[in-house]
Amino acid sequence: MKVAIIGSGFSSLSNACYLAKQGHEVEVFEKNEQLGGRARIKIIDGFSFDMGPSWYWMPDVFDNFFADFGKKVSDYYDLKRIDPSYRVFWPDSPDDIPASMDELKAYFEKYEKGAGDKLVQFLAEAKIKYEVGMGDFVTKPSLSITEFMSLDTARKGLALNIFKPVSKHIRQYFTHPKLIELLEFPVLFLGAKPQNTPSLYSLMNYADMALGTWYPMGGMNKIVKAMESVATELGVTFHTSANVTEIIAENRTVLGLKSNGDFHDADVVVSGADYHHTEQSLLPPKYRNYDQKYWDKRVMAPSSLLYYVGLNKKIDGIKHHNLFFDESFDQHAIEIYETHEWPKAPLFYICNPSKTDDSVAPEGKENLFFLVPVSTELKDNEPTRQRYFNMICDRLKKHTGQDIRPYIEVYESFAHADFISEYNSFKGNAYGLANTLSQTAILKPKCKNKKLDNLYYIGQLTVPGPGVPPSIISGKIVAQLIQEEQQKHESII
């Protein structure tokens, strides 16, 4: 069977590998010059910047992916655990969040008597959610409620406490505001206000604090290169600078797609491109799962204001990962998800991979990646980008005593307009849909087209959701679905 995949992000690379392993002829069409989607790499004057993802969490997902092809992570890149996991800049003074569980317990105990033992209890419950969620729920295509109706699945589902907000769940264990913000940050940065996010997502705290924060030496793009290598070995063909402009269909069947004016026939098409773009721009209205009104009602995860900065000197006072929680956590969440305005005093994140990896910057120099989570409902321009860059540089100077601006050798920004032009991203989103209860599992956009028998969707706007590990899982889910449906079709014939 001939399969055409649109896009080459993590979900597409995963999908391509699994489909090729099943014996299909697979071609991948990527509109940009590089593979990797948001995980592309930007090289400027000896600085190597990961353009998107910079956190390596859930190492078991990567291990399992490569194991499915008889490989190991170590066959492709060296993985290093980051310790401390990250530095948090509070309004008063910074804290390093230790990788060691004993040290982490002591850190919690420092702020709240008994919190060390409560952390053990909290993470034990989060581990159950992680194991059940990743083992029984995340791996389903979520096309029908019947997938979750077995007694075993229902019993396990009760353990997930899915209807309680994660904010309330955390406050049942802890009262100190620093500990609460520390546990809520993965939700705020990746999906929704903690008050609107199911407590299921405390599994992210288990991923963070128990499974650890890791780094592939050479950068996150090493994962892309590794998955490309697996795919190529399996016979996958890649086309770069190959913009797909139309999916051709007749009756209930996709016939193929058009890229750069040429028609490419296919028995199955899988779109790893932005779901909204796929439907609204590549398909005629009669074949779309959802209309524009549906999309306008979706709650989006944040967009991001990004900066890639190379310094001509080393700096002190920051670690590999740095979270600036020196302003109001709640106010920034409101500005992202409710008022949809440019934040007055945003939280932000700095990645400094050259603290760990000498290869990402020239000798004696520093590689910095800045991220400000912002609403998708914004219009950005260069004066706005520059204003926010100066704002975060001022706050970096306040906390470390160093003004980096005189030492900048490389500077580039990336925001809403770039997410749209580079990735056809709906409203310039960076992470897909917010992880609200009304947008979980079967309530997410379906991974299969309802009007065409051989068109499927993968990536962060469908199941299981945003993030690198879920995207990898997304590709596998749809490959398995395609195989099952092909086997059913053959058995009927």
Features:
493 residues, 15 helices, single chain, alpha/beta, 7-stranded mixed β-sheet, globular
What is shown here, in short?
It is built from 15 helices and 19 strands. It is an alpha/beta fold. The strands form five sheets. Strands 7-6-15-16-17-14-18 form a seven-stranded mixed sheet.
Tell me about this structure:
This protein has helices at 10-21, 59-67, 101-111, 115-137, 151-159, 166-171, 177-190, 203-211, 221-233, 275-282, 292-296, 329-337, 382-400, 416-423, 468-492, and strands spanning 2-6, 25-29, 41-44, 47-50, 79-81, 86-89, 94-97, 214-216, 237-239, 244-250, 253-259, 262-265, 268-271, 303-311, 321-324, 348-351, 366-374, 408-414, 455-457. The chain is built from 15 helices and 19 strands. The longest helix has 25 residues, at 468-492. It is α/β, with parallel strands linked by helices and 493 residues long. The model has no long low-confidence stretch (mean pLDDT 95). Helix 3 crosses helix 4 (115-137) and helix 4 (115-137) packs antiparallel against helix 5. It has a seven-stranded mixed beta sheet. A five-stranded parallel beta sheet has the order 9-2-1-13-19, covered by helices on one side.
